[in-house]
Design brief:
The complex is a heterodimer of chains A (529) and B (146).
Chain A: H1 2-10, H2 13-36, H3 40-68, E1 71-74, E2 85-88, H4 93-117, H5 123-142, H6 146-165, H7 173-203, H8 208-218, H9 223-239, H10 248-255, H11 258-283, H12 289-315, H13 320-341, H14 344-375, H15 386-389, H16 391-405, H17 411-426, H18 429-455, E3 460-461, E4 464-465, H19 473-491, H20 494-508
Antiparallel strand pairs in A: 1-2, 3-4
Helix pairs in contact in A: 1-3, 2-3, 2-5, 3-4, 3-5, 4-5, 4-11, 4-14, 4-19, 5-6, 5-11, 6-7, 7-8, 7-9, 7-10, 9-11, 10-11, 10-13, 11-14, 12-13, 12-18, 13-14, 13-17, 13-18, 14-16, 14-17, 14-19, 14-20, 16-18, 16-19, 17-18, 17-19
Chain B: H1 2-6, H2 8-26, H3 30-52, H4 64-72, H5 75-87, H6 94-124, H7 129-135, H8 137-143
Helix pairs in contact in B: 2-3, 3-6, 4-5, 7-8
The chains are: A mainly alpha (529), B mainly alpha (146).
Chain lengths: 529, 146
């Protein structure tokens, strides 16, 4: 705590008073400048600067809320429910930090990766689209206005379609994958906005806390409210790749430029999962029978199905990035299972796994991009001898891989153990069985890759074994930062667990009807008063 | 029957919504899919606009006489003007504003979708999904273990 207060004094005043808004505004404004910028190096430097700024801002916000409680920010000084409010609490502050950190590490990695995969004259717009996608994700997480969520959801999605399609210079299937993602993503977002429309119809307000307050008066028997809940859950389910709605994900992850796949895999589904948590637990009331049933049957049930089916599919893929993509669907299943238990421990486990999974998948996809960068490899069967030709990259991949399996001493183990404890506490013994089975399946699909890399001979080229060709430092550094943090958070999970616990407390408290403005912690911008 | 007439706009919304979704799922042609998606999104615009309708409400524009009364006259007239304004029922303008944003989003989605279709046509020479799958059949097999 002492350290935190010391750190807080280091942040300038504006970060603490306007941080929530600047997280969205800074990337959006600089995206325009980046798009107009003909110099690719300068465009990259702009992105790096923005991400560093966002890391500091979100860290400042996180320290702020741990010390002083939630932050309400009124956009333009207009008080909610009339104005748009931004809201930061224990549930979304860690996700803001996660998205910013991953974006920062990805940007370092982007320097060689984008140079290899994107045509030179398209680099400026490429970075601009990335900044827009980044701003959209942050906006989705930070806003407390239900319609604003939809706008940011689409801002990030539309730029994502563009960026996935940019992978076409490497593999033409990026175009069809992007098209499929566009169709399914738009249907998901439209379902979400239909749900928001029904909520507005019944409550007459768009501010999340105000909706929660009015919903408490309406009660759980209202059919329109139930319908709204169904539309919102399905819409967000599409976005977060809930098991049968995940069909867009493998293609998008496999054929997007490696840099963007890393960012997408580590953050996009997490932001959508956060929204699902926010809506089911703090806008609707988890004690209502239809919400409780949906959480238990739909989220936990589909989570279990996803864990099994997607893990099995991952085994039968030969494209490395498709293996990792199906594994992502399976890992979303773990998170949904934890959330589906709806107990404090279960929610902690789900949230913790969300944070840990972002770190592990980030590292794995960075390594996968590095293999392509050096040798043009995408298939698992081509990975023979990579342990000798790219030892540091492969070692980073292996560390993140064993964390994904859940070997003791890694972050993946901590979150899986918490999940098992939560299941035992709930008496869901069959769920523990499924966790063990899917971990064994993970051993198979990750082990298959590690076996190829370390126990197969180095392939020969013109009679000589392929020479050692390590990835550049700009790739190795972000890879190892992520790989080492899986080890650090595996040995000492105090910090990540405390973040997950504070998020679980927010969810446990049920509907948040605290109308902003009534209990302002931070001084709000003056203007509209 | 009476209920249907009262909720005529919702019947239209539901019909368009189902029609759009069906076209997205059933058609093989990428342009037709995008048309279906647009119809689906448009049905949501209509749903929101229907929400803004207040029975007996007039467009949410403050009548000019009332404004003049409020600015020109003394206290009595202002009070009278305010009184009159309270009597008038206005429709809810907020859904219209929301939908203005959603229309922009829809246009952007459609533009990106059409741009992708153009690129797909250039690369594959077709925009029928089954033909594209057939063209990529060999490549897709690489994705499965041999």
């Amino acid at each position: 705590m002492q350290v935190m207060f010391l750190l807080m004094t280091m942040f300038p005043e504006w970060i603490l008073s306007h941080g929530a808004a600047s997280l969205v505004v800074i990337p959006l404004i600089l995206a325009v400048l980046t798009a107009l910028n003909p110099n690719a190096k300068l465009a990259w430097a702009t992105v790096l600067g923005v991400t560093v700024l966002c890391v500091f801002t979100s860290l400042g916000l996180l320290l702020q809320i741990t010390a002083h409680g939630p932050i309400h920010y009124n956009m333009g000084g207009w008080k909610p429910p009339l104005g748009i409010g931004y809201y930061v609490d224990g549930l979304n502050a860690p996700i803001l930090l996660l998205i910013s950190l991953v974006a920062f590490l990805c940007t370092i990695y982007a320097l060689p990766s984008v140079a290899a995969e994107v045509e030179p004259k398209k680099k400026g717009p490429f970075y601009a689209a990335f900044l827009i996608s980044f701003a959209g994700l942050l906006g989705m997480v930070v806003t407390a206005d239900a319609f604003n969520v939809f706008v940011f959801l689409e801002v990030s999605s539309i730029s994502t379609y563009v960026l996935v399609g940019m992978g076409a210079s490497r593999d033409r299937r990026a175009l069809t994958s992007s098209f499929n993602y566009l169709i399914m993503g738009s249907i998901g977002a439209t379902f979400f906005v239909i749900g928001i429309g029904f909520l507005y119809m019944q409550t007459g307000t768009l501010n999340m806390m105000d909706i929660a307050r009015v919903l408490q008066d309406i009660g759980s028997q209202d059919r329109v409210v139930r319908l709204a809940f169904a539309f919102i859950v399905i819409g967000l389910g599409l976005k977060l790749a809930m098991f049968p709605l995940h069909m867009w994900l493998p293609g998008a992850y496999a054929y997007a430029p490696s840099f963007f796949t890393t960012f997408l895999a580590a953050t996009a589904t997490k932001a959508a999962l956060y929204l699902l948590l926010r809506f089911t637990f703090t806008v609707f009331d988890p004690s209502w029978d239809f919400v409780a049933t949906a959480i238990m049957i739909l989220l936990a049930g589909l989570g279990i199905l996803g864990m099994l089916a997607a893990s099995l599919q991952a085994i039968f893929q030969n494209d490395l990035r498709r293996v990792l993509a199906y594994s992502s669907v399976a890992q979303v299943g773990y998170m949904l299972l934890g959330i589906g238990m709806a107990t404090t421990l279960g929610l902690t486990a789900g949230y913790l796994h969300m944070l840990n999974h972002a770190i592990m998948k980030g590292a794995l996809f960075i390594a996968a991009g590095a293999f392509w960068y050096r040798f043009g490899i995408t298939q698992v069967t081509d990975m023979r001898g990579l342990g000798k030709t790219m030892p540091w990259t492969m070692a980073g991949f292996t560390v993140a891989g064993i964390s994904l399996i859940g070997v003791p001493g890694t972050a993946g183990f901590v979150s899986k153990l918490t999940l098992v404890r939560a299941a035992a506490e709930n008496g869901w013994w069959w769920a523990i069985g499924v966790i063990v089975v899917t971990s064994i399946l993970a051993i198979i699909y990750i082990g298959r890759i590690i076996e190829q890399a370390y126990f197969q001979p180095v392939p020969e080229l013109k009679g000589k074994p392929v020479a050692r060709n390590e990835a550049p430092y700009t790739m190795l550094i972000p890879l190892w930062i992520l790989a080492l943090s899986t080890l650090v958070f595996g040995v000492n999970a105090e910090w990540t667990t405390s973040l997950a616990q504070s998020a679980a407390h927010v969810l446990d408290a049920g509907p948040n009807t605290n109308i902003p403005g009534a209990h302002e912690v931070m001084p709000v911008v003056t203007g509209g008063h | 029957m009476n209920g249907l007439l009262e909720h005529f706009n919702y019947a239209v919304v539901i019909f368009l919504m189902m029609l759009g979704l069906y076209v997205v799922f059933a058609s093989n042609n990428m342009i037709k899919k995008l048309v279906g998606l647009s119809v689906f999104q448009t049905s949501v615009f209509l749903l929101y606009i229907s929400l803004g309708k207040v029975t007996g409400g007039q467009p949410p524009i403050i009548a000019e006489e009332d404004l003049h009364a409020a600015t020109d006259g003394g206290h009595d007239v202002v009070a009278e003007g305010a009184h009159q304004a309270a009597d008038i029922i206005y429709s809810n303008p907020l859904p219209h504003v929301l939908i203005l944003t959603a229309i922009v989003v829809g246009v952007a989605t459609l533009a990106i979708g059409l741009a992708l279709v153009v690129r797909i046509r250039e690369v594959y020479g077709t925009i029928e999904e089954d033909e594209i799958d057939a063209l990529d059949y060999e490549r897709n097999l690489e994705g499965a273990a041999k």
